[in-house]
C-alpha cells in the first residue's frame, strides 16, 4: 500500500550535542513505587500552562510547576481498584471549557475527571482491553480518541460520555494500537500506530454528523448509533517493528519504533483513492538505548524541540527545525538510571519533565545564560 | 401387663387382653422409642455421616418427626466438605426430559404419581435403617416384587432393609421413599415392607454408611430407586425417589440439609421408569455430588438448572453464569447472585450441559408424598393430602441466600404465565449486560426486549464496500462505476425479486437519484443501461422509459440550465423512439 520513494535518502541526525541550550535538574519527586507511565502538560488552557498530570499505578496526580524548580501537588485521584494501572492521561475540556483529565489504563475504562469539582465526570466503558493512549482534539477539546490493546481506536465525547466512532475492522489495526494523535489543523484526521508495525491515517469526515449529534444526545449513551469505520485513508509501513509513538508534525509524522530512532516522514495521500499513497522518510533522529516499547516522546507547543528519554534514564533533546537534525543537548543525571517512559515539555520548552519507571518525576529547567 | 409404655395411659382391659393374645402391638411410639434409643436412626445416621444433626420428636399430631440440621462445620469455604473429595459420578440412566431442560417438573400428572397418590399414606422407608425385628417377615426379598397389596398390614412396619443387604430390585417399601420413615404411620395402603421389591430398584440399597451411586434410599427413605421397571406393576409406593440414605452420599443433585425435598426429584417418575431415581433426595446429610444447594435452598435448587454453561463442579451456589454476552471483558457477574443462579433458567434454554447440574426440580416432588414426610422440607407440592403433616424445616442456609427462595412447596404452584415469564427473566435481570459490538452497557429494557441485532445491516458500510469493489474494475470509467454503485446499492436495499418489479424499481431509482442522474454523463449512463440491459431483457417497456424520462425532466426543470433541458428532452425523445422501435421489433 505504500511505497518509499527511491532516491531520497533520509537525513540522519548526529549525536553530537550542540548545547545551544542546556538544562539542569531542579527537582525530583518520588511519587510512589509504581512506574509512572505518562506525564502531560496542559496545552489547552493558557491559565494552566504550568499544570501537569501524571499517571502511574492506580493514581492520577496533578501538579503545578512553580518557579525555582518547585513543584506543588494539587490533586490526586486513586482508583479504588488496586489492580488498575493507568497507562495514559490527557487533558480535555467540557463544553464550558472547564478542564477535564481523561485517564485510561489496564482495565480499559477511561475515567474523565472533572478537575474543578474534583470528581469523576464520566467513566467511558467500551474498550475490550487496556487503553494505551488518549489524545484530545485541540480544536474540539470534548473529543478524545483512545488507542487500545483491543486493536481499535475509539472516538469519545467526554462531555456526554458517548462512544461516537470505532475505528477497527477489515482495514484496521491487526494488533495492539499503541498511539494516536490528532492532526493539528485538519479536524477530521488522525493517525494511529501499533504493534502491527503500521501507521494508519484515518478520516472521520463522513461521520461528522454523528460527532455533532453526540453533543446533543440526551438518551442513553449505549443507544447512540456508534458507527464503525473500517478503512483508513492511508496505511504506512515505515517501520519494521512495534511503533509505539506517533505525533503529527504539521503534515508530516514523527514516529518512533523500538529500533532506537525517531523517523520524520511525509504521508502522500491520493485524494480520490483511499488507501493508496506513499510515505517518504525525510529525517531520522537517533535515540540510543531505547529499544523497549512504550517510551513516548513529546515536544513543546511550538514544535521547536523534542524531548525523549531512554532506558538508561537519559534525555535527548532534538531541534525540530533543523535539517539535518541537530541534537540540542543530552540530559543525564547519575541518579537517573531508570527507564523514562514519557517526557513532557512546557509550552515554551523551558521545562522538561520525565516520568520514570521507578515512580520518580524529574524536572529539568533550562539554564538561562 | 397393664403397664403401658412410659408416659402413656395405662392399658385398658381390652388392650391388655389383645396384648396377651397377640403380643405386644407395635406402635409408633414404641418404634420411635427404639429408634431413639440405641438403635435409632440417629445412631445409624450418625455412623454414616457427621454432617447432620438429627432431632427426633413427635409432632403435635402425634406423628414422628425428625428435624435435620446441617452441622455448622459441615461446609468449608462454602462447599460441602464431602464434596471436596472426588466421587465417582453417578450413572444416571434415566433423566427426565423436562428436568434436563431445566423445566419445572410436574406439569402434568404422571403415572407414577398417581400411584403414589394412591399409596400416599404409605411411608417410604429406607431399608437400611430399619430394624429387623420390626419388619419381621418382610425382609425382603428383595427380589420380588411383591405387590403391595399382598402385604397389607396396617401396621406400618418399617421394613428394614436387611442391613447390609444390597437389594437390587429393592424393596420398595411402600412408602415413598421419603426419608422419613413414617413410622407407624398408619398405613394408608399397604406398606410394603421389606418384601416389596419394587422392582427394580436398580439401585442397590446402600448399606448404611455406604455411598451409593445413584439414588439410594436412605435410612429412612425408602425411596426405592426408581424402579426401572414397570412402575405400574409394582405398586409402588416406591418412590423411587431415592432418598439418599441419610448420610449417604448420593450422586446427583442433592439438596443439602433438608432439602429433602429432593423428593422432588422424583417426580419424573412416570416417564422414565427406569432407573434412576434421579431424584436423589438429598436427604439429609446426603452429600450428593451434583449441584447441590446449600442449606435450604431447596427451592432454588429446584429451579432450573443453571444456566451456566460451565459445569462447575461444586459450587454451592450455582452461579448461573449466564453466558451471555459478548465476549467482553465484561462486567463480572456478581459473585453472589446465587439466588439468581438458582432461579430458573428460562424454559427455553437448553441445559445441555451439565450433568452435574441437575437440580431436581425441587418442589416438584412426587406427588405422593407420604403423609408424613417429616419435616424436611420436602414438602413437595404434591404432597397433597398429607400436606398437613409435612413440616418443612428450612435449614438455615449456609452461606448464601438465594434470591428466589421458593417457599416450601406446600401447595401446588399454578402455572401462571406471568410467573413463568418472570422466572424466565430472572437471570436476565441478574447482572449487567453489554452490547457485543460497541461494548456499551445495555439497559434492562434492551435486554428484555428480545431484539436480535444479528440481522442489522450497516448500509453505509455496505455501500462503501460495493463502491470499493467496483473500484477495482479496470475497464470501467468513473461514471460507469458510479452508476453501477448507485444501482447496485439501490437494488440491494430494495430487494427486487420479480421481473414485474423492475419497472417500478426503475421509477423509484430515477426518483431517488434524480439529482445525480440529471448530469449529462449520468443521464447517458442511465439510458444506456435501461435500454441495453433492461429493455433488451424485456424487463421494462417503453412506457417505463418514458415515465422515467419525465421524472428526470421534471427534476431538470428545476435546474436553471435551460440548454440541458432541451438537450435532455431531445435525447429522451430519441431514446423513447429507439426503445419503441426496439421493443416493437422484438415483439
How are the SSEs placed, and which strands pair?
The complex is a heterodimer of chains A (369) and B (587).
Chain A: E1 2-4, E2 11-12, E3 14-17, E4 23-30, E5 36-41, E6 51-56, E7 59-65, E8 71-78, E9 86-93, E10 99-105, E11 110-114, E12 119-124, E13 131-136, E14 143-148, E15 153-157, E16 162-167, E17 177-182, E18 189-194, E19 199-203, H1 208-215, E20 227-229, E21 234-236, E22 243-249, E23 252-257, E24 261-269, E25 277-286, E26 298-299, E27 305-309, E28 315-319, E29 326-331, E30 340-345, E31 351-356, E32 360-366
Parallel strand pairs in A: 1-25, 2-25, 3-29, 16-20
Antiparallel strand pairs in A: 4-32, 5-6, 6-7, 7-8, 9-10, 10-11, 11-12, 13-14, 14-15, 15-16, 17-18, 18-19, 19-21, 22-23, 23-24, 24-25, 26-27, 27-28, 28-29, 30-31, 31-32
Chain B: H1 13-22, H2 28-36, H3 41-48, E1 52-58, E2 64-70, E3 75-76, E4 79-80, H4 97-100, H5 111-118, H6 132-135, E5 254-255, H7 262-266, E6 292-293, H8 298-302, H9 338-342, H10 417-426, H11 444-448, H12 459-471, H13 478-494, H14 501-512, H15 514-517, H16 520-535, H17 542-557, H18 562-586
Parallel strand pairs in B: 5-6
Antiparallel strand pairs in B: 1-2, 3-4
Helix pairs in contact in B: 12-13, 14-17, 16-18, 17-18
Amino acid at each position: 500500500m505504500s511505497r518509499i520513494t527511491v532516491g531520497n535518502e533520509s537525513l540522519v541526525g548526529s549525536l553530537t550535542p550542540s548545547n545551544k541550550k542546556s538544562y539542569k535538574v531542579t527537582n525530583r519527586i518520588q511519587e510512589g513505587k509504581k512506574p509512572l507511565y505518562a506525564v502531560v502538560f496542559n496545552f489547552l488552557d493558557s491559565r494552566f500552562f504550568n499544570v501537569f498530570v501524571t499517571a502511574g499505578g492506580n493514581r492520577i496526580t496533578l501538579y503545578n510547576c512553580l518557579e525555582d524548580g518547585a513543584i506543588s501537588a494539587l490533586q490526586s485521584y486513586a482508583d479504588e481498584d488496586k489492580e488498575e494501572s493507568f497507562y495514559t492521561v490527557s487533558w480535555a475540556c467540557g463544553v464550558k471549557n472547564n478542564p477535564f483529565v481523561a485517564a485510561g489504563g489496564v482495565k480499559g475504562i477511561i475515567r474523565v475527571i472533572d478537575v474543578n469539582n474534583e470528581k469523576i465526570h464520566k467513566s467511558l466503558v467500551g474498550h475490550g482491553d487496556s487503553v494505551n493512549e488518549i489524545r484530545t482534539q485541540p480544536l474540539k477539546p470534548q473529543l478524545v480518541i483512545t488507542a487500545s490493546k483491543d486493536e481499535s481506536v475509539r472516538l469519545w465525547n467526554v462531555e456526554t460520555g458517548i462512544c461516537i466512532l470505532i475505528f477497527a475492522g477489515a482495514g484496521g489495526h491487526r494488533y495492539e494500537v499503541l498511539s494516536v494523535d490528532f492532526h493539528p489543523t485538519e479536524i477530521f484526521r488522525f493517525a494511529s500506530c501499533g504493534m502491527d508495525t503500521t501507521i494508519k491515517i484515518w478520516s472521520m469526515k463522513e461521520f461528522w454528523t454523528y460527532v455533532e449529534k453526540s453533543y446533543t444526545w440526551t438518551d442513553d449513551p449505549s443507544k447512540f448509533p456508534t458507527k464503525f469505520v473500517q478503512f483508513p485513508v492511508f496505511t504506512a509501513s515505515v517501520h519494521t517493528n512495534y511503533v509505539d509513538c506517533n505525533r503529527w508534525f504539521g503534515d508530516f509524522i514523527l514516529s518512533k519504533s523500538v529500533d532506537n530512532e525517531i523517523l520524520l516522514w511525509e504521508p502522500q495521500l491520493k485524494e480520490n483513492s483511499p488507501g493508496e499513497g506513499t510515505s517518504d522518510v525525510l529525517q531520522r533522529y537517533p535515540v540510543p538505548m531505547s529499544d523497549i516499547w512504550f517510551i513516548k516522546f513529546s515536544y513543546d507547543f511550538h514544535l521547536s524541540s523534542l524531548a525523549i528519554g531512554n532506558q538508561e534514564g537519559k534525555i535527548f533533546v532534538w531541534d525540530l527545525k533543523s535539517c539535518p537534525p541537530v541534537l540540542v543537548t543530552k540530559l543525564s543525571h547519575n541518579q537517573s538510571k531508570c527507564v523514562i517512559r514519557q517526557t513532557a515539555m512546557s509550552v515554551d520548552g523551558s521545562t522538561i519533565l520525565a516520568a520514570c519507571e521507578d515512580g520518580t518525576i524529574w524536572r529539568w529547567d533550562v539554564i538561562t545564560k | 401387663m397393664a403397664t403401658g409404655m412410659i408416659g402413656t395411659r395405662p392399658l385398658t382391659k381390652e388392650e391388655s387382653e389383645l396384648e396377651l393374645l397377640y403380643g405386644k402391638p407395635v406402635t409408633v411410639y414404641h418404634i420411635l422409642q427404639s429408634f431413639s434409643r440405641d438403635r435409632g436412626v440417629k445412631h445409624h445416621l450418625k455412623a454414616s455421616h457427621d454432617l447432620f444433626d438429627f432431632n427426633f420428636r413427635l409432632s403435635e399430631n402425634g406423628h414422628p418427626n425428625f428435624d435435620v440440621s446441617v452441622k455448622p462445620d459441615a461446609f468449608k469455604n462454602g462447599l460441602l466438605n464431602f464434596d471436596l473429595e472426588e466421587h465417582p459420578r453417578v450413572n444416571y440412566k434415566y433423566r427426565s426430559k423436562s428436568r434436563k431442560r431445566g423445566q419445572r417438573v410436574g406439569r402434568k400428572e404422571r403415572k407414577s404419581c398417581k400411584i403414589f397418590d394412591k399409596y400416599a399414606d404409605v411411608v417410604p422407608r429406607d431399608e437400611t435403617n430399619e430394624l429387623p425385628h420390626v419388619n419381621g417377615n418382610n425382609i425382603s426379598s428383595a427380589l420380588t416384587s411383591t405387590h403391595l397389596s399382598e402385604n397389607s398390614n396396617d401396621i406400618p412396619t418399617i421394613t428394614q432393609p436387611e442391613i447390609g443387604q444390597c437389594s437390587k430390585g429393592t424393596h420398595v417399601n411402600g412408602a415413598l421413599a421419603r426419608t422419613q420413615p413414617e413410622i407407624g404411620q398408619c398405613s394408608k395402603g399397604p406398606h410394603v415392607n421389606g418384601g416389596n421389591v419394587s422392582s427394580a430398584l436398580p439401585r442397590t440399597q446402600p448399606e448404611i454408611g455406604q455411598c451409593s451411586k445413584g439414588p439410594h434410599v436412605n435410612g429412612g427413605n425408602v425411596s426405592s430407586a426408581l424402579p426401572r421397571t414397570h412402575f405400574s406393576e409394582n405398586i409402588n409406593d416406591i418412590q423411587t425417589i431415592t432418598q439418599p440414605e441419610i448420610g449417604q452420599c448420593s450422586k446427583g443433585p442433592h439438596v443439602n440439609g433438608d432439602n429433602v425435598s429432593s423428593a422432588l426429584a422424583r417426580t419424573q417418575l412416570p416417564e422414565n421408569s427406569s432407573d434412576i431415581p434421579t431424584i436423589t433426595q438429598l436427604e439429609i446429610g446426603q452429600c450428593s455430588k451434583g449441584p447441590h444447594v446449600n442449606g435450604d435452598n431447596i427451592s432454588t435448587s429446584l429451579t432450573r438448572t443453571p444456566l451456566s454453561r460451565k459445569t462447575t463442579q461444586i459450587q454451592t451456589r450455582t452461579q448461573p453464569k449466564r453466558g451471555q454476552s459478548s465476549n467482553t471483558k465484561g462486567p463480572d457477574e456478581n459473585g453472589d447472585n446465587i439466588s439468581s443462579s438458582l432461579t430458573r433458567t428460562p424454559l427455553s434454554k437448553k441445559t445441555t450441559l451439565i450433568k452435574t447440574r441437575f437440580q431436581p426440580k425441587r418442589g416438584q416432588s412426587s406427588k405422593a408424598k407420604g403423609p408424613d414426610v417429616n419435616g424436611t422440607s420436602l414438602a413437595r407440592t404434591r404432597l397433597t393430602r398429607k400436606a398437613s403433616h409435612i413440616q418443612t424445616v428450612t435449614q438455615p442456609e449456609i452461606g448464601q441466600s438465594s434470591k428466589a427462595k421458593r417457599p416450601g412447596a406446600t401447595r401446588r404452584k399454578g402455572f401462571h404465565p406471568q410467573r413463568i415469564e418472570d422466572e424466565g427473566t430472572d437471570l436476565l435481570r441478574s447482572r449487567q449486560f453489554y452490547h457485543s459490538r460497541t461494548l456499551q452497557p445495555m439497559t434492562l429494557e434492551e435486554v428484555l426486549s428480545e431484539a436480535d441485532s444479528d440481522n442489522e445491516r450497516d448500509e453505509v458500510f455496505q455501500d462503501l464496500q460495493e463502491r470499493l469493489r467496483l473500484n477495482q474494475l479496470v475497464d470501467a470509467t468513473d461514471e460507469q462505476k458510479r452508476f453501477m454503485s448507485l444501482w447496485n446499492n439501490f437494488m440491494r436495499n430494495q430487494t427486487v425479486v420479480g421481473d414485474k418489479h423492475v419497472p417500478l424499481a426503475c421509477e423509484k431509482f430515477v426518483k431517488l437519484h434524480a439529482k445525480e442522474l440529471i448530469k449529462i454523463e449520468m443521464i447517458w449512463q442511465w439510458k444506456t443501461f435501461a435500454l441495453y440491459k433492461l429493455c433488451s431483457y424485456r424487463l421494462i417497456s417503453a412506457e417505463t422509459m418514458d415515465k422515467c424520462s419525465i421524472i428526470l425532466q421534471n427534476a431538470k426543470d428545476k435546474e436553471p440550465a435551460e440548454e440541458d433541458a432541451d438537450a435532455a428532452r431531445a435525447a429522451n425523445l430519441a431514446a423513447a423512439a429507439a426503445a419503441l422501435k426496439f421493443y416493437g421489433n422484438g415483439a
